[in-house]
Amino acid sequence: MIQVGLMIAETDTVEDGNYLRFGNELLRRGYEVNLCFLESIAMLDSKVIARGFKLCNPLLDGEMFPESHPIDLTQSDLLWVLTLGMRHSFLDKMQLLYCLQDHCRIINAIDSLMHFKSKYFLASHEAVFKYPPTFASNDPDELFRVVQTGNGKWIAKPPAGSLGRDVFLITKDDPNVRVILESMTGPESDHYCLLQSYIEEIRGGEKRVLIAGGVPIGQYIRQATKDHRTNQMHGADIAPCELTKDERLYCERIGQFLVSHGTEFVGVDLAFPYVIEFNVVNPGGLLTIESLTGTDLTSVIIDRIIGRDNDKNIGKNIPELA
């Protein structure tokens, strides 16, 4: 029997989300499923282990987690990383997971988890997708000089931030621009700040496109209402939408590029033709699309990534392209 480990965050109770949907669907299909708490990952006598439990019955939203015990992750055929955990231990966790990639297939690949969440990788692949002109530095004076060129608007944000936190819309005439840049780079100038040209296409909304196994499978649109941010937690409106023919072809091309790098389940934030961000760790959208359309895409995602037709890929970190 194929053994799948879902690496998740430990919370007080079970929460409805990707791990609940994926775990229940895999259990229904006859996979052996272990839910493992990423923050507990460790090395014991040269084996990589984590606390967790075997899924014997479908998870229910709000119930208590079963009692956990050490699980040998080297026995897994597939590991699906659905959280990054605490920032300060990120590198250790990625290095421990890296030790497993010769034993099992990892979704998404460790290189993907390391680099695709940041904006640097996106900015360096103009031949594949369009990305706003980007600058990054830990020197606030250098970034201030960039802002002073031209009369455009700039987005200042952390290179690997999320949920719309610390995302500022600035111009050279903003009296707070230097203060913002100094705050973003830290009192010791030991934090990096990213500057991106503000793109007017974002005014038409930003589409979150779920891509599974290289194929776009669902999407919705987010429209900023309170300020420049399109994040739901900051008040953006959401609505169902379709992809235009050009957008779909674009996402299919991006999807094949992602799969070739071991990136198999992704949320792409798109303001066509610009890619704003890749969400490679537990991308949101599954529950939102269901709430907007009534369609649960869980089985489609499992089919595209680790369904019966793809069992030949179990144990491989990068699947073959179609």
Strand content: 25-35%
Global Rg: 20 Å
The portion of residues assigned to helices is: 10-25%
Structure class: alpha+beta
Number of helices: 9
Give the N-terminus to C-terminus distance in angstroms.
26 Å
How many beta-strand runs? Answer: 16
Mean of all residue-level pLDDT scores: 89
Q: What does the largest sheet look like? A: 7 strands, mixed
The SSE string, one letter per element, is EHEEEEEHEHHEHEEHEEEEHEEHH
Low-confidence sequence ranges? 308-322
Characterize the overall form. globular
Task: Explain how this protein is built.
The protein is α+β, with helices and mostly antiparallel strands. The protein has 9 helices and 16 strands. The strands form 3 sheets. Strands 1, 2, 3, 4, 5, 6 and 7 form a 7-stranded mixed β-sheet that branches. Strands 14-13-12-15-16 form a 5-stranded antiparallel β-sheet. The longest helix is centred in the C-terminal third of the chain and has 16 residues, at 245-260. It is globular. The two termini are 26 Å apart. 38% of the residues are buried. Mean pLDDT is 89; it is low at 308-322.
What's this entry about, in short?
The chain is of the alpha+beta class and 322 residues long. Helices cover 25% and strands 26% of the residues. It has nine helices and 16 strands.
Write the layout of secondary structure elements.
Layout: E1 3-8, H1 18-28, E2 32-37, E3 42-44, E4 47-54, E5 69-72, E6 78-81, H2 90-98, E7 105-107, H3 110-115, H4 120-123, E8 134-137, H5 140-147, E9 154-157, E10 168-170, H6 177-185, E11 193-197, E12 206-212, E13 215-223, E14 237-240, H7 245-260, E15 265-271, E16 274-279, H8 286-293, H9 298-306
Helix pairs in contact: 5-6
